[in-house]
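Example A, followed by Example B.
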Amino acid sequence: MTTPNQTTKTSVDQQLTFDDQVIEKIAGITVSRVPGIVSLDGNMFSELADKVTSGTSVTKGIKVDAGEKQVAVKMDATIEYGKSAPEIFKAACQEVAKALDQMTGLKLVKFELHINDVKTRKELDDDNNEKDAA
């Protein structure tokens, strides 16, 4: 006896996930391109780790809380003296939200930017000269 060929729809369980480091890196690279952001800064431990490893990380000073569809980002930064912190904040938030949506499909639902230092152009130049000498 022949059984008729039946078409059955099979459902595939699909899930796309990201390590927090991936979200941190996307946010860090994006924010580093915002005018007025001088650097992202971590706590004392990450500062010490950088000195020991003699490296800097694009995720330094960034914490994320990622869910399946949404993400919250918190970061610490140094900005350039004379620049508008509210304008820098607005641009950083918009750019991070756009980058995360485009690259991961995650919606930015909370964004915190803590300004922990301000540097003048001379301080920035001095910092760059110190790095070049090292």
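Example B, a separate protein, is given below in the same form.
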Amino acid sequence: MSIRIFGVVIFVIATLYTWNAGSYAITFGDVLGPTVFPVIVGIPMMILSASLVVFPSGQVDWPAPQRMWRQAAALAVLIGYTIVLRPLGFPLATFALIALLGIILGGAAWKAVLLGAIMAPALWALFDQVLGLPLDFLGSLFG
């Protein structure tokens, strides 16, 4: 039964994802526009998740509670990242994301913080300076 529930949940997410992609509008760039990629991902996701509902197979072995808590904590960090990205800016929010995920996944705290301190500015430089995708260095919290 849990495979069918999972299939329904993924189907709903894929449907909302694909439907929301239709609202993207941009006046420059690719001829096809920003809607194409989400549709290319969303439609097969709907089909595959529907197949889980119609043709479930096997038995689900749920992970141990400790692993479930880690997954829930990682999901909470990812949701928190989307909330603090604009106020803190890309480097600070990404630093926190990388450091917290490293700790949650069982890494040493000092290694996770060091990785976040190196990767956050490097990713900002890659996206902003090299690829030309503008990202706020300091968010709205810092003016």
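On Example B: The two ends are 51 Å apart (CA to CA).
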